[in-house]
Amino acid sequence: MELQAVLMAAGGGSRMMDLTYNTPKPLLPVGNRPLIWYPLNLLEKVGFEEVIVITTKEVQKALSTDQRLKTDVKMRLDVVCIQEEADMGTADALRHIQQKIKTDILVVSCDLITDVALHEVVDLFRAHSATLSMLMSKVHEFTETVPGQKGKKKAGEQRDFVGVDVTGKRLLFMANEADLDEGLVLRKSIMRKHPRMLIKTGLLDAHLYCLKRSVVDFLVHNKSVTSIRGELVPYLVRKQFSKTLNSQNATEDSERNQKQQDAHHNLELLSTSKDEALLQLARERSCWNDHRGDMSEAYHGGKLRCYVHIMEEGMCYRVNTLAAYIEANRVVPKLFEDPPIHPAAVVSERSLVGSDSIIGQLCHISDRTSIKRSNVGTSTIIKEKVKITNSIIMNGVTIEEGCNIQGSVICNNAVIGRGADIKYCLVGSGQRVEPEAERTNEVIVGSDQLMEI
Amino acid sequence: MADSVGRQVDSINHATEEDEKKQEIIRAKGEGKELTKEEKQRLRKEKKQHKKNKKDDRGPPEKEKEKASVPAPSKPATQSPAHKAPVPVNASASESPVAAEKPAKSKAELRADRRARQDSERASKPGKKEVGQQSTSSKPKATPSELQPVVKRLPEHVQVDDPAALKKLAKKLERQQVPLRSDYGYKVSLFSHLHQYSRKNPPTQQISIPVTAIHPSIVRLGLQYSQGIIAGSNARSVALLHAFKQVIQDYSTPPNEELSRDLVNKLSPYISFLSQCRPLSASMGNAIKYIKKEISNIPNQCKEEEAKRRLQECIDSYINEKIILASQAISKYAIEKISDGDVILVYGCSSLVNHILCEAFEKQRKFRVIVVDSRPRLEGREALRRLVKKGIRCTYVLISALSYILPEVSKVFLGAHALLANGYVMSRVGTSQIALVAKAYNVPVLVCCETYKFCERVQTDSFVSNELDDPDDLIVTRNGKTHLENWQTVKSLGLLNLVYDVTPPDFVDLVITDLGMIPCTSVPVVLRVKNVDQ
Fold it and tell me: Which one in A13, A418, B87, B505 has a CA-CA gap of 20 to 30 Å to B245?
């Protein structure tokens, strides 16, 4: 077997707590499908037959009971539960399943929605015998108004600085603005080897990584690494140009160096078969070099290589903020050939459902309702004379007569009272909006969800 | 006739005759296939007069042999090119319905026909053979039994404009679960019989990501071939053998199967996949032949672990003998030819020539090197880097400056991709240019080539069998402008990126091999000796 897929679905959705305090992030409906369905579909389309899913107990239950997931996903899901309280990072989770990992792995995050041709990422991994191969995409500006956001969107999260070489494939440098004190520091060794480097900001990390098996072994030995994206990836990118790796000094004085060397040796995992000599011979005889202008051989003789595939076109979203969630809901229904109105929904003839809306199953839509550019989840009851525009209605919601909902997100099992006028609001899970209420640009959540000051 | 007889008998007794009829139909279908092949052969015969009878001779007895060996799952690879592996049962479906009507022409008549022809030909065989031989350029072969005369069918990769051959290939690949790579872009008409692939459509597009049908190390190898990461005849062979070692390591014999037969069958789809990524080189072909022979020679009683270990050792010894030791032997001979004060011209990046020059430098010979390079590959830069890193004084020119620089040159060292049976040297495109101009300036041309690259093919021009590389490689951006960017929209424009060309033996003064220094025309002798050894 060549690659094993690992799906990380234990995240809490810390950046959209309003949506996720009741529903775990992997089960949030996007386009009337649970969020976890999208990466699973991506893996299935490419030909994976088995996926290791790391998640919480709640999601595991849903995976086995949810109709959509059971019927649509034909792969075998090997679900590993971890305690939510344990607060495990992604690297901790990999350490946890170390026994199951027998080959190189493809780590995917549960909030990734993309139509990338996965073979582009994996081909880089295969052809160059890379230690790490990841996917990034150009960030699309979000155009929809986000409920509950007062004023203009601030500069947003901290930027990521990504340095690639001339070909645009080799990853030379990666740092987050938060880690940099005053300026961007580039090591001379990198500049000497790759004098032309393109530094890009405005790239979205898709959290899709191909990792060599030796990296998992390295994680087992180095328990201090908790997060793949936050610690492991920058470490690997830095270590490409580390001196100790390239020149294998046998004797070191201090113990610290010795320990470091052990770690490095684990990381290199020279395939300790005698066949390494053959590969070396083939590379020597080959007249190919990945760079030119200096006297070094291909890859500068380095054994650790990191590659990135940057998607120029196509769709790539990470649903980890409210804005992304809304954007994804907008874009995703266009992808799939599902009928916009589920056959099991009951839609009255005198209602007006726009062509860019989707209605889930077991819905009940009464007369003289108008639904435009909206996603309506399953088991929702919408009474008469309701006007819904540009909104996302999740499952089990009840909307009484005469409501006007615009640009809002209504979470599971909420109840909107009669005649309410809701604009650009987020109604939390299970909340009730009283009749004749007029809310604009608010986040309506229960008092127990409010932060303690 | 036979059919009508069958039917008459049928009217008397139904039960037993039905089986017979079925058998007849099966036989007739087989005959039908033979018949259409026969028809094709007759057409060919009309074109090539003197070979007509030979083919007929060999055709029927060989087809009988083929049919007999159909039940056996594998064939020993004694018949040359591996392309001739097709199982007759698998001939295209379109042929059989057409053929089913033909058998009425009666197989008894056919057989009698053939027998008469065979007898007459056997009588006049020795005479015909000599005539045939003298018409070819090489020395007459001493005994026909040493070189098996085989029916050479055209390999698939030079029949791209023949829809029947393409269909056959598609069927074969489908059966082996190997994706078919489609051709790209407009092909210059002279070369429309060759494949032209694009690097933007890798062969891995259509296979599932955790590959099941093909071993992962073979997929990796194919990718490295198609992207040019492993390039150069020796590198490709070594990488291929390395991948085969991995395959053998991970192989486990299924129950009720013999390792010697099953492993060979397992290797066939891998080889198809690799040739879809990039056409196989002559050295790779020889290596594959060697491996297949070794596998089939494994005795049945041998235990799996022991067999695997033996095969790994065989591969190691093959690489050691034919590549590593051979290059050492060749350097030893070549260094004798390098004298102090020499100006040596090399072309492109040949691993063997670079090795020779580095060794000569270590042995304190004083010489300088002129590296000639050509677009689009610009491999000379890599050769230049290696030589300069060693400390050798080098000059770098493009091939357009060849006649300017040649008066300074005292010797030309060329590498080869393959040496053909008629003494022609197949090498990177541009080599024949260099040899031609060197001849005009009376500069000696020495070709360095290991014996495992000797090939039984015969070719006198570069058109018949070649490789077309990605045409987009010719597109270059200068001063921010890319003129050829939309070459596909211009209907009358074709981009041609040839990879190989053949140099006639008159331009080559010496071939340095691990067997010694031989003239170009002695290549068939070496081949004959090799065959006798095996």
Answer: B87
What kind and span of H or E run contains B503?
strand B500-503
Write down the pLDDT at residue B217: 93
Q: pLDDT band at B60, cuts 50/70/90?
A: low
Q: B235 vs A123: CB contact, 8 Å cut-off?
A: no
Query: For residue A5, which residues of chain B lie inside 8 Å, CB to CB?
Result: 210
Q: CA geometry: angle at A158 spanning A156 and A159, to 5°?
A: 105
DSSP category for residue A142: P
Residue B509, pLDDT score = 95
pTM, entire model: 0.79
Total tally of structural domains belonging to chain A: 2
Q: Which residues contact A318 (CB under 8 A, 6 or more apart)?
A: A109, A111, A112, A113, A204, A205, A206, A207, A324
What does the pLDDT look like over B185-202, one tens digit per residue?
899 989 999 999 999 999
Do residues A365 and A385 share a domain?
yes
Residues A315 and A387 in one domain: no
Verify whether the Cβ–Cβ distance A2 to B211 is below 8 Å.
Answer: yes
Cβ–Cβ gap B210/A49 under 8 Å? yes
Residues of B in contact with A119 (CB under 8 A): 202, 204-205, 209
Residue A196 corresponds to which amino acid?
A: R
Q: What is the ipTM of this complex?
A: 0.87
Chain A residues inside the 8 Å CB shell of B231? 286-288
Give the model confidence (pLDDT) of B428-464 as tens digits: 999 999 999 999 999 999 999 999 999 988 999 999 9
The answer to whether the CB atoms of B231 and A279 lie below 8 A apart is no
**A55-69, B292-306, B458-472: lowest mean pLDDT where?**
A55-69
Q: Evaluate if residue B97 carries a pLDDT over 50.
A: no
Structure token pair of residue B198: 């694009």
Distance from CA of B319 to the nearest CA of A (A): 9
Flag whether A273 is in a domain: no
Cα gap A298→A18, rounded to integer Å: 51
**Distance, C-alpha A84 to centroid of its chain:** 19
Q: Identify whether residues A325 and A387 lie together within a single domain.
A: no
- Cα(B61)–Cα(B58) distance, rounded to whole angstroms? 6
